[in-house]
Write a structure and sequence with these properties.
By secondary structure, the chain is an all-alpha fold. It has nine helices and no strands.
Length: 299
């Protein structure tokens, strides 16, 4: 049902078609941006797949990549229709496709809005994946001689240095696992024997952390062993010594990094959705242009 009847002369119809053509090519550019964001997010997830339990969700980046490709295809097609609409003879071949195209655009906009929402709602799933993945990765830190795990030490160290974090939830997580390989333990030492015997699982546990947990901003040399033993170090209190080790856990650091990234992407996708939603009127507008063009030709 028409809400407002508007008459367009030939000059106005040409300007409208040109405006719609330009809008569709802007949408193609927006699709390239969405595609690039999905590709970037996929690469970022792949880079740290070892600390994400190898079960990181690629639904969001894959969806962004797909939406970007579809946006380029749909809007490139719409741009071609807008260009041909200026010539009634050329536009005649596109007219039967306008209804299916409009339905596809409507469905595409729904999917695009859904993907934008997913970008904002993935935090919970990502948090559990990171928590479990980091916990497992820390257990393999010492396996520098084990095929398939020898790279884990470097991965964890680089992660803690880059994100200025320590452990899963904090530096005390390292106290609960044996992160020093048996290869570098002197089993003839009484201290080593006593520590292993005192543990139910026969692990060598220490209140120490890897070097990558050290904060270079600390004014004193880094204390990474006997961290909680105040009497072992001069003028030291581990509860107030904030600059010695990174206090933030890597789960929190990575969660903030990826959440911020996906929230920004979600906001951009919402803007693209608003732009695309406006573009769904292209087919109906072109019908009007075509009808006016035929009437003008008859007169």
């Amino acid at each position: 049902m028409a809400l407002l009847k508007v008459k367009f002369n030939q000059k106005k119809r040409v300007k409208l078609a040109q405006g719609l053509w330009l809008m569709n090519w802007f949408s193609v550019f927006a699709g390239i941006i969405v595609f690039s964001m999905g590709l970037f997010l996929k690469i970022e997830l792949r880079k740290r797949s070892e600390v994400m339990d190898n079960s990181e969700s690629h639904f969001v980046p894959n969806s962004l990549i797909l939406m970007g490709i579809l946006s380029c295809a749909f809007n490139g097609f719409a741009g071609k229709i807008c260009y041909d609409s200026l010539d009634p003879a050329k536009f005649a071949k596109w007219k039967p496709l306008l209804k299916p195209y409009l339905a596809l655009c409507f469905f595409f906009n729904i999917l695009l809005f859904f993907v934008a929402l997913i970008c904002f709602l993935m935090r919970g799933s990502l948090e559990s994946t990171l928590a479990q993945g980091l916990k497992n990765s820390m257990k393999f830190y010492r396996d520098t001689d084990t095929p398939g795990r020898c790279f884990m030490k470097k991965t964890i160290d680089m992660l803690q240095i880059e994100f200025k974090c320590c452990g899963n939830n904090g530096f005390k997580d390292w106290f609960e696992i044996q992160w020093i390989s048996n290869r570098y333990l002197d089993f003839s030492s009484k201290e080593v024997k006593d520590r292993i015997k005192s543990n139910v699982d026969g692990r060598y546990l220490v209140d120490g952390v890897p070097f990558s947990c050290c904060n270079p901003s600390s004014p004193r040399p880094c204390i990474q062993y006997q961290v909680t033993n105040n009497s072992a170090h001069y003028s030291y209190d581990y509860q107030t010594e904030e600059l010695n080790l990174w206090r933030r856990g890597c789960r929190e650091a990575l969660l903030h990094y990826y959440s911020s990234m996906m929230s920004s992407m979600g906001a951009i996708v919402l803007l693209v959705w608003l732009f695309e939603d406006t573009g769904t009127t292209v087919a109906a507008t072109l019908r009007f242009i075509s009808r006016g063009a035929r009437e003008g030709a008859q007169h």
